[in-house]
Structure formats: structure tokens, C-alpha cells
Specification:
Layout: E1 63-66, H1 72-83, E2 87-92, H2 97-108, E3 114-118, H3 124-138, E4 143-146, H4 162-183, E5 192-196, H5 209-229, E6 235-241, H6 249-253, H7 278-285, E7 296-299
Parallel strand pairs: 1-2, 1-4, 2-3, 4-5, 5-6, 6-7
Bound molecules: nicotinamide-adenine-dinucleotide and magnesium ion.
């Protein structure tokens, strides 16, 4: 596509630039990707930062597990973490193998441990096993990024059937409880848990009632858990993205006819790219945010949050 290249920057995130113009205003064609969607099949492509993110040693030798690290925000975070010097394990669904391979190839170039584990976050046993496998692969765990998420837009409330309802709650919030429970025995003072929430937790769109409810739960979970774990030296925080161009959106996350305007009503006038989220995760993972606990960092292109 004509704007594929224009949508990928080679200018690193530390170079002074106009946020309005850092990326073009995209007008994605109406498209409906099967399943959870693949980055590899998006039009236009999303920018995961593989040609631009510059590390400065902020996560040297840290060991991070990132759910949904095959694509979108999780993939951009994985790339940033590896460039900052961290070992990284990503999880993904078996049908996302192609995306996972692409991201792992980028991570491997950083010379740290880079491992992918396929599985379904709806599966309780997987939530437990994946933590054990990550600990074994990296020799420990310092950072858990609860990022995997499911979003299916429905125009009518009655169309949210039990299958969608339960899957959305299982993936978005119950898996976060289960992964934290499995991870806690391994986390030492200095560890960090980062949950991906959303701007919709504050402004629920009428087409995302189930999804937005899980995101509000994540905000609350983050603040409650943050208080309980703070005395143990484990910090819990969240990142609330605004409209970000990821496979979640063209795979049923938005009504297809809304894709051409995606993100254009933000104050910056454009959708965000996944790599624009990565510095918030790096900040929360790194000791420089030592006094930040129970916080939610909005990365919304200016959409107001409370
Ligand atoms: P994405 O599709 O690239 O990533 C979501 C990932 O979740 C998938 O790659 C997949 O691996 C994982 N996932 C989904 N269902 C799963 C299941 N049953 N088992 C295991 N893994 C599963 O999209 P993204 O936008 O980067 O999403 C990352 C997070 O960001 C999600 O929590 C999403 O809710 C949140 N978010 C996204 C936006 C946005 O505009 N894209 C806005 C706010 C919040
Ligand atoms: Mg994916």
C-alpha cells in the first residue's frame, strides 16, 4: 500500500519531533481480518519501532514476560524492552505464529534471551504454566506485562452472547489475576507488574460494553493490588492507550465502516502507532519510576482522562 512506508519511521523516539506529524493520518480501508488478526496482514502496516526504537540501557538484564507480545502494543513493548537490554518472553495464540516469529527475529538481534510461548489465556492451566516456563527460560522474572486482550464490537447489546462475554472477561481481566498469582512467588523487591487498560475504561463506547467493563476492572485491580504489593517492593501500574493501529481493530474490534476514520478525532488528529506506547511501559518497568504505584499512564493522543 502507498502509505505503508510512510507509516514506519526511522527517526528514533528521542529525537525532537512534532507529535502531530510523527506519523501520517491513516485512513485504513474497511477490512475484516480473521481471528485475532495478524500484523503481517494489516493495511496499512503498523509501526512496532523495529526501525526506530533506540535503547539506552534502562532495563539491562531484566527478565520480562509480555502477554500478547506477537503484535501491536505488546510487540512494540517487547522490541523496546529487548533494546533496553532485557530478556523477553512473549505469549501469543497458536494462529499468531507468523507474527510471533517476526517479532522474535527482531528481539534475537539484541543478543538477549527471546522466547515465544503459544497458548490461550482463557485456559487457567496455561496462565500458570506460562509463568513457570518463562521463569525457566530466563532464570527468573522481574517484569510481568499483562497485555493480551480481546475486543469485539457489537452494535446491539443482545449480540454480546455468553461465549463473547466470558472470553472477553477471561482474557482481559481473569487472566491478569491468574498470571499475577502464578508470578508472585518469583517476584522480588524491584519487580514491576504493568497492566494494559484503555481510555474506554473512562469513556465506554456504546459498541464496546463488555470490553470497556473489563478495562474499568483492570484500573481498579491495578490500584488495589498496587497498594497490597507496594510494601513488598513490587510496583503495579497500568497504561491506558487511546486509539492505536493494531490488529485488534481491523479484526472485529471496531465496526468496519469506522476504520477509515480511526483515531482522527483525537486532539493529535491521528491514530497512535504501537511503538508510541513502548516508552510508557519501559518507564514503568524501570527503577526510575520507583515512587509510581497504582498509576495509570494515559497514552491517548490527547483524549482526556480523569
Ligand atoms: P493486538 O491484537 O496486537 O494484541 C492483542 C493480543 O492479545 C493478541 O496478539 C493475542 O496474542 C492476545 N490474545 C487475544 N486473545 C487471546 C487469547 N484468548 N489467548 C491468548 N492471547 C490472546 O492488539 P493491541 O491493540 O496491541 O492489544 C494489546 C492490548 O492493548 C490489549 O489489552 C488491548 O485491549 C489494549 N488496548 C488497545 C487499544 C488499541 O486501540 N489498539 C486501545 C486501548 C487498549
Ligand atoms: Mg496478535
Amino acid at each position: 500500500m502507498a502509505n505503508d512506508d510512510a507509516n514506519t519511521t526511522t527517526t528514533d523516539q528521542l529525537t525532537l519531533q512534532d507529535p502531530v506529524k510523527r506519523y501520517p493520518v491513516i485512513s485504513p480501508p474497511e477490512q475484516s481480518l480473521p481471528g485475532t488478526g495478524l500484523d503481517a496482514e494489516m493495511t496499512p502496516k503498523a509501526d512496532l519501532g523495529e526501525h526506530s526504537y533506540r535503547g539506552t540501557g534502562r532495563l539491562t538484564a531484566r527478565k520480562a514476560l509480555i502477554t500478547g507480545g506477537d503484535s501491536g502494543i505488546g510487540a512494540a513493548t517487547a522490541i523496546a524492552f529487548a533494546r533496553e537490554g532485557a530478556d523477553v518472553v512473549i505469549t501469543y495464540l497458536p494462529e499468531e505464529e507468523k507474527d510471533a516469529r517476526n517479532v522474535l527475529a527482531v528481539l534475537e538481534k539484541e543478543g538477549r534471551t527471546a522466547v515465544g510461548i503459544a497458548g490461550d489465556l482463557r485456559d487457567r492451566q496455561f496462565c500458570q504454566d506460562v509463568v513457570a516456563q518463562a521463569v525457566e527460560a530466563m532464570g527468573g522474572l522481574d517484569v510481568l506485562v499483562n497485555n493480551g486482550g480481546k475486543q469485539v464490537a457489537q452494535k446491539e447489546f443482545e449480540a454480546i452472547d455468553d461465549e463473547q462475554l466470558e472470553a472477553t472477561f477471561d482474557v482481559n481481566i481473569l487472566a491478569q489475576f491468574r498470571l499475577v498469582r502464578a508470578a508472585l512467588p518469583h517476584l522480588k523487591p524491584g519487580a514491576s507488574i504493568i497492566n494494559t487498560t484503555s481510555v474506554v475504561s473512562y469513556m465506554p463506547p456504546e459498541t464496546l460494553i463488555d470490553y470497556a467493563s473489563t478495562k474499568a476492572a483492570i484500573n481498579n485491580f491495578t490500584k488495589g493490588l498496587g497498594q497490597q504489593l507496594a510494601p513488598k517492593g513490587i510496583r503495579v501500574n497500568a497504561v491506558a492507550p487511546g486509539p492505536i493501529w493494531t490488529p485488534l481493530q481491523p479484526s472485529g474490534g471496531q465496526p468496519t465502516e469506522e476504520l477509515p476514520d480511526f483515531g482522527q478525532s483525537t486532539p493529535l488528529g491521528r491514530a497512535g502507532q504501537p511503538t508510541e506506547l513502548a516508552p510508557a511501559y519501559v518507564f514503568l518497568a524501570s527503577p526510575e519510576s520507583s515512587y509510581v504505584v497504582g498509576a495509570t499512564i494515559p497514552v491517548t493522543g490527547g483524549m482526556p482522562t480523569p
